[in-house]
Each structure stands twice: as C-alpha cells, then as structure tokens.
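Before relying on records like the one below, remember that each one covers exactly one chain. Contacts with other chains, cofactors or solvent are not represented anywhere in the record.
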Amino acid sequence: MPDESLEWVAPAKINLNLHVGEKRPDGLHDLQSHAVFCDIGDKIIVHPSDEMSFAVKGPFAKDLAGLSGEDNLVMRAVSALRDAAGSSQTARITLVKNLPVAAGVGGGTADAMAALVALRQFWSLDVSDHQLKDIAFSIGADGPLCLEVHFSQGGIKLMSGAGEFVSHVSTLPTLYICLANPGEAVPTGAIFSGLAQARTKNGAPPKASLPVLPDPVLGADILRLITQTRNDLEAPAIDLVPSIAKIKTEMASQPSCLAARMSGSGATVFGVFLEDAAARQAAHFFQQKSIWAAAGKIL
C-alpha cells in the first residue's frame, strides 16, 4: 500500500461548440465538439487506507449528499479500474467539489476521469491508456474527452462519434476564461428530451461539419469558430432555465470578451478573454449579482 496521499485535479471542460446529430440505432447521438480545459476545477485526493471509501467536501459538497450506486461516477470508474487490473487494492478517496453540479463543464465525469488516472498511478496498476479510454466511454459520452486532458494537456480537442473519438487539433495562445452559472442544475436527460421535442416540431438543423482550424489558433480564430458554429443544447437548456440567456448576454457585453456561449448541456456560460484582468473583472461582475462565477486560464 502506498505511504503517501496523492492529489489530482479534474479541470473544467468547456465546449466551444456542440453539434448533436440524430439518435443512432444504438440509442446514442452522433456528436461533434471542439473543447478546451481550464485551470478551474474539482480535485481528487487519494489516501492510503485498509478499506475502500469515498467522501465529498468543498463548496458544492452538499449538492452531492447521499451520492451512491450508479450516480456515483467516481466509484463506478474505480470499480471498473480494479476489475480491469484484477486488483482488490483499497484507498480513501476524497472529492473536493469546487464546481457547480450538473453544470455542463464535465462535472462527475471529469471527477471520475481524474480518479482513474490518479488511482492507476497510486496503485501502480498495469492498465493501458486504451483500457482507461474504454472505461471512460462506459462512464459517459464526455469520458474520453475528459480523460484526454490528462494525457495531452492544453489546446483544442475535437470530440466525435458518440464521444469515443478524441483528437488534439490546435494549440492556443494565452487565453483566459470566465465561467458563470445561475445556480440551477440542468439534468442532461431533460435537455436531450427537449432537443428531441423541438426537432420533432421544427425538424433538425442542416448537417454541418465543424470548420478545420489552423494550428496554432489565434483569438480571432476562436471568435470565428464560435460565430460559425452552435451549441444544439443551448436552446432547450434556456427553455428550462431562462436565466442562461441573460447571463450569456451579460457575459458577451463584458469588456474585452471575445465570445460567449453555454457549455455542454448547461447551465454554465463561458466567456473567452485575452487578458486575465478582464476575465477576473467579469467574474466579479457576476459575483456582485450573487451568481457563481470563477475566472482562470485556458490550458
């Protein structure tokens, strides 16, 4: 058993765009998304222990009270990791929950991926990256994407398929980000149901491939990327939580904001900035309105 504890960060995931295709015969949706990560996130702490246990602390711990069974993505991932390694090793796992729950920035899936990588190292397991990626996709569509950041930090990633395919596409200049969340959890299932209802009524938008990005990208490329693409889950999320639209408008109007959009299935809105001070000023603007917000650097 290891003698010392190990800490691992679960960076917030930001979908710069998200195109959702129709449901496939296997029940999954084809997805396309450019995504980045930032230095705002949750934390996994692994302690030596004779028993397996899991606890949550931090600003949003209360929102995960009683988390167990299939809803506990961290322990689902840990169980799958031990099965893959044929291991019965134990640890005391603490999740420091700094980000809002069900917020469209990776959340439980990102926490589970951090736990996978941390425990593979903590227990010195002979489990390959490919095996980790299989476990990641079994946890959720965002799993492989949120795992990839631990292998190749930084830059823009492209997610495709039903989420199982992830590649690095471009490096980035130094950019900063502000996240703002209205404080209302948005269950992913409800958002996809809303999307299905809207498409039944109005039809699906025309199929559109995501643009090919230069490498490296510049700030102007990020603006163009967001302008030329969409997040298909934004409209159904706004139907459920109308305040998302107001936060997005206010974020876009912040000084030096390059672009603003809702991430993933929401309800978190992000703004991209060229300067750290501008991102922090934006976060302060929302905090003054009692809206959760944080500023950081894009990896």
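Residues 176-297 form a domain with the Alpha-Beta Plaits fold (CATH 3.30.70.890).
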